[in-house]
Every structure is written in C-alpha cells, then in structure tokens.
Amino acid sequence: MPPLCSTSPTVHPGRQVLQICVVIQFLRRTWRQFIGLCIYLLVCSFIWSPVVDSASSNFNSGNDRTVHPIKKFVMQSYFDRHRELHDLVFDNFVSQEVNVGLFQVLPENHDFVPRLSVLKRNLIGEGSHRHVSTLLKFQSQQSQSSSQLLSSSCDLIVIERLPTGVFADPFELQRLVQRGVFNDVDVFGDTNLELPSFLSKRSAVEIHLAVDPNKLLEPTDINIELPLHARYQPLNESGYSTVELGMPDILVRCSTMEKSENQNCFFKVTNNDADVQYGADVIWRIPSGKKAHSDLVFAITFSAALLSTLVIVLSSLEYSKTRRVGNDSKQS
Amino acid sequence: MRSLEFTSLLLFSAIFRVILIIYGEWQDAHMEVNYTDVDYLVFSDAASLMASGDSPYKRTTYRYSPLLAFLLIPNSLIHRSWGKFIFSASDLLVGYFIHFILQQRKVPKKLSNYCVMTWLFNPFTFTIGTRGNCEPVVCAMILWIIICLMKGNVLQSAFWYGLIVHFRIYPIIYAIPMVLILDPDFFPSDQKPILKNWTAAQAERLHDGNYLYTLHNLFKCIFTRNRLIFGLVSAVVFFLFTGLSYYLYGWEFLHEALLYHLTRTDPRHNFSIYFYHIYLHYGYDISVMEKLISFLPQFMVQLVLIFYFAKDLPFCLFAQTVAFVAFNKVITAQYFVWFFCLLPLILPWSKMKLKWNGMLCILSWIGAQIHWLMWGYLLEFKGKNVFFELWVASLVFHAANVNVLTMVIRHHRFSSFFLGLKDAKSKNVAKHE
C-alpha cells in the first residue's frame, strides 16, 4: 500500500485524497504564519472588545414582566393604586399593609418585632456605576410567638426608593437573582433608562431575601449590595450634581400554611434604637454639564462642521481638477 | 493554489469566529463584564416575545425591524447563540462577496487576498459579529446589491435595496448614486453591463466634463426603464415590509423602528461632535434655524461626493458612508462596520502606500478614538467632570475622520465602475485591429 501523501509521480491516489494532501502540505509550510496570526487575532480581540463595548454601551433594559403574581411584590400593590412614587403616600401605604396583615397570623398580644442594632449604609465605587451597600444587624430578643414563627417561611423585603438622579438596571438585577445573590428582585416606577434625570420620575427597587425567622431574633449580619447607575443630571454651575440616597424600608414577610391556606403577614423592621451609621458617601456626586459652556460649544461645534464640509468640498474639487489637468498633459 | 489561499483564509476566519463565540459564552457565565453586547440581549428578548405571539416592541429599546426578531426566533428554540452564528456567517459572507467582486474586476489575486484580509481580520469586524451585533447582515446585503448591479439584475438589486432600507434606514443615502449608475450608457437595453477591470495604469482617460455629462444625462432621461424599475420596485418592497410590520405591530413599530432613528438626539456621550451641544440644550425647543444648520453640512457633503464620484460606485458609497458617520448626531462604534465592508472594494485603486501615508491614516484614526475613550473612561468610571475635554476629543476624532476621507480621496485612482457603450465599442475596435 503506497503512503497516503507520497509525492512520487508513479503513485496516483484518488482526487479527494490528492486535494487533502495538497492542503496538508500547504498547512505544513504555513503553520508558523497561522500560529502568529492566531496570537495577533486573540490579542486584538481582547484589546478591541472593551473599545467596542464602552463606546456602544447604553443602559438597555426594560421591565418586561407585565404581570406579577398577585401580591408577590409590595411595590406592585403600591403602583397598582398610585401612579408615582411619593414619600408620604408610600409611608402611609406601608403602615397600612403591615397593620392589615399583622392580625391574621399572630394573636393580638404578639411581641414579634424585629429590631436592628446596627444599620450601616455605604456607597461603594467610583463614577457612574456604583453599589449601595446596606449592613443590617438584628438585635437578639426573646419572643413568645417564636414557635409559630418556626413553621413559617420568611422573606426579608428591602425597598429602596431611588431619587430621580439614579436608576437600577432590571436585567443586571435578574442576573444577580440567577446567581443566587437575591431570592427575587424587581424595579418599579420609571424604568426608562435613557432619559436624563430632569425628565424622569422616581423608581423603587424591591429586593427579596429568604431568611430563617430564628435568625431575626439573634444577632445576625445581613449585607445587601445593590448596583446602581447615574442618570444624566441637569446642568449645574459647579459641574457636579449631588444625589442623596435615603434609608431603605425593611419589612419581613412570613407566610405559614394555616388550614391549607397560605397566609402572609408583614412586620416592619424598626430601627428606632438602632445605631444608624451613614457612610460619608451615601451622597453621590455626579458630573453634570455647565451652562456656561453653552454658547462656546454651540459656536465651535457648528463652525467645525462647516469647516470640515468646506475641506471635503475643496478636496473633491481639487481632485477633479488634477484629473483633468493630468489628462490634458497626457493628451498633449 | 491561489484560490486555495482564499478558501483557507475563509476557513480559518470561520474557525476563529466559532472559537470567539464559544469564548464569549464562557466569559458571560464566569466574569462580571459580559462579552456579549447588550443589544444582543435586547434582540433575543424581542425574538422570544415574538415567538410567543407578542409584539417584539414590548421589549424597551428594541428599535429594529420585526424581521430581525423573526430571524432570531431560534434563539429560544435551539440555542441562545443562534443569532451570533447567523451574524458571524454573514460576516464570512461579506468576505466572500468582497473576494467575488474583486475577482470579477480582475484584481490580481495577491492584492485581492490582502484586501479581503482587511475585512476578515479586522478586529472591529470579528468582534462585532461574535458579540451579537446585527451589522454584518446589513453589510452582506449591501454587497449583494452591488453584485446584482454588476450582473445587470436590476430587479433583484431593487428588491434587496427596498428591504435593506426597511431594515436599517441609513442606506437611503445610496439611493442617488445607485439611480445614477443605471445610466443607459452603462445599461443598454437588454444587455448586461460591462465591468471596468482593474489596471495598474495611473489614471483613467476621461471625457471632458465627466460629471456634467452624467448630470445632463440624468435630466434628459431620468425615466429610463432601469431607473424606473429600480425606483418603483425598491419603493414597493420598502412600503410592503413597512406596511406589513405596521399592520402587525401598529404605532409602536413606526415609532420605535422608524421615527426614533430619524429624530434621534441622544444627550449621552458618544463620538459625535454634537453630543455636548445636545446635552446642554436638552429639553429646550430647537429652533428651525438650528435644525437647518445641523442638517446642512451632512446634506452638502453627501451631494458633493455623489456629484463627483457616482460613476465609481464602490468609492462613492465608501466616501458617503464615512462622511455620513462622521457628521451624524450620534456615533457608536458599530457604525464603523458600515464603511469597513466597503474599504476592501476601493483599496486596489488607492495610490496610498502603507508606508507611511497609510500607517498615518490608521494610527491617527485609532489614536483619536483611544484619546476619546480615555476621557470617556474618566467621565463614566471615575466620575470626573470632563465633559468639555470629552467634547474636544470628539472634535479631534471628527478631524481625524475628515483627514482620512480627504487623504483617501486624494490618493484614489478614479475608475468608472462600468464601461460606457462608446468605451466598450472603442475597446472592441482596438482589439480587432
């Protein structure tokens, strides 16, 4: 049997085999160039992907869940009744929800009130994309209702009411849910992520964390980090706008199976006697345009556009002239 | 052996793109920063909405034709990377079309291969397709339209032109040069046009008043059979697809897919020189005068380029696209692919040598971009107020774009795309003698 890729002229393998031989010989000769090309391309793709990304990135997202399971999210109930987020209205709403739910499960003289000993807020990061971190430390306390609680499944609900200057990306938050950081999360209110802050309304983020009810009566640490992004701010003489993040509303919702019915009740976590610590930078400084630049920018932008138009027109004109001149000198 | 070289180039590019797609999936799953473009997630969501019978426009920021969502329906049925494979395949198809066009115009194989490599191995292009951006599909369609014109298939080119304007509005700028090229001198009745081949000669013999001749001809016989077919068929196709989409998805489609692009003013920072001006005046009413001033440079440049270069169709399209992107109100990196796909078609006719004019063009363009990106990084990731400096960087980038365009014009060897009847006859006469 003759060797497959022999170059002896007396051997005549089939046409396909001949083609494969030619390819293999070609590859043998050029493999070094191919390896070099591979390395070049891999390096380029690493260099260029952030270039392409940062220039074409925009905060594309949307709230595509139009139907929520009934009462799954507290904020959904709020926005079912109200069009916009107003602090006073919201405070009333929360106390209503909490009071209504409270008496369904526990006796009137229950004493389960989760209390915080420490509440720390911090803004981590730089630039337009940061994280707001909330550290909760519960107080240890005895509760007579603890036996009933043991049979419940509880959710820690953290509601962040965001000012118009910042927003949360629902899709980024969904990825966190997929990675198991939160149980569930959703954004309510104004979810248009492209408009500047002076044309936007407020939004709120509701985060659900599964929590063992016993842990709420012991000194436990819970740390929540929420990624936020800055909107374009209104113009400011100083060049920076400040956005202040308020305190989150923290609720606990426990549901028990009572007479084969799912019953929910809410508890508002109080922090009246908690050691509330604000990190120095829960105040976010976001760059904003300076009105003083308006006229100069207008003048120079449009002058530059007209100048470059002139340059292109003149180049085309000159080009056509040189072609004609060149031709004349050729023909003469 | 030479054609094998192109086939092996194509094969190698294909394998490389597959590897990049697989790597992209890995990076998405394991790293904070995604490889996949955010737009791809938008398309996928819109496609899955369409698959379940809903309107794709329920997905906010989906601003494309429903055809794109339709193309990506298998994303939810087969695998979420289906779209990326489609886009990378279009990417490779563009490479093949470039090779085909250059071969038809008898460009020497070595030169042709180098030109194809400027597309297949351009970092912008292979990252765009593998990251899930739909621009390669648009580029493939444009090149196919050029091939149809080359073969004399006016009907087919009109169909694809109507479709692509429905898909992405910007090719409307190519309408005038395409109508101009359907000159009865180039497209005599019932005859295929004759392509003008590549020559190593320095300059093309041209008749005096070359352009006025075209314009004069245009006014004399604007209603030739070919021009009428092209105009009517492309308009019918455009309205057909637009009408169908409107019937299916109503005002949402019209607003998101068409009107948004025509009236888009995004105040967020991008390469355009207008971004800071738009931000500083956002929310205020724009006077008619101001609208006119911002539209005028773009309009004038397009008209001038068409007037001088329409006969050399690929060059005209390239120059128009570069100018269109440079003067646009919003510029994002994906727009660069629009002229990268036309660049290999004009390179064989450029007198510019890589050393050092070519290198200067490339480096100044890339350098201006990196300069802008540096200020953009300081603004977005470090929170410093550098709006003014970023705007100056966008002016510098605009200057680099204009510089590249004028350099390319100056070093171009004008070559008519088709041979006119008279030229063809004189060539035949010369052959027989």
Automatic annotation (TrEMBL), chain A:
Q: What is this protein called?
A: Phosphatidylinositol-glycan biosynthesis class X protein
Protein family (similarity comment): Belongs to the PIGX family.
Membrane topology reported for the UniProt record: Single-pass membrane protein
* Taxonomic superkingdom: Eukaryota
Give the metabolic or biological pathway.
Glycolipid biosynthesis; glycosylphosphatidylinositol-anchor biosynthesis
Keywords associated with the record: Endoplasmic reticulum, Glycoprotein, GPI-anchor biosynthesis, Membrane, Transmembrane, Transmembrane helix
Q: Which organism is it from?
A: Stylosanthes scabra
Transmembrane region positions? 34-51, 296-317
List locations, semicolon-separated. Answer: Endoplasmic reticulum membrane
Chief place where the protein resides: endoplasmic reticulum
From TrEMBL, chain B:
Pfam families, sorted: Mannosyl_trans
Give the enzyme's main class according to its UniProt record, as a single word: transferase
Main location group: endoplasmic reticulum
**Listed pathway(s):** Glycolipid biosynthesis; glycosylphosphatidylinositol-anchor biosynthesis
Q: Where in the cell is it found?
A: Endoplasmic reticulum membrane
Q: Which UniProt keywords apply?
A: Endoplasmic reticulum, Glycosyltransferase, GPI-anchor biosynthesis, Membrane, Transferase, Transmembrane, Transmembrane helix
Q: Name the EC number(s).
A: 2.4.1.-
The residue ranges crossing the membrane are: 6-24, 85-102, 158-182, 228-249, 292-310, 322-347, 359-378, 390-409
InterPro entries according to UniProt: PIG-M (IPR007704)
Topological category with respect to the lipid bilayer: Multi-pass membrane protein
> What's this chain's function?
Catalytic subunit of the glycosylphosphatidylinositol-mannosyltransferase I complex which catalyzes the transfer of the first mannose, via an alpha-1,4 bond from a dolichol-phosphate-mannose (Dol-P-Man) to the glucosaminyl acyl phosphatidylinositol (GlcN-(acyl)PI) intermediate to generate alpha-D-Man-(1->4)-alpha-D-GlcN-(1->6)-(1-radyl,2-acyl-sn-glycero-3-phospho)-2-acyl-inositol and participates in the sixth step of the glycosylphosphatidylinositol-anchor biosynthesis.
What family does the entry list?
A: Belongs to the PIGM family.
Q: What is this protein called?
A: GPI mannosyltransferase 1
Native organism is Stylosanthes scabra
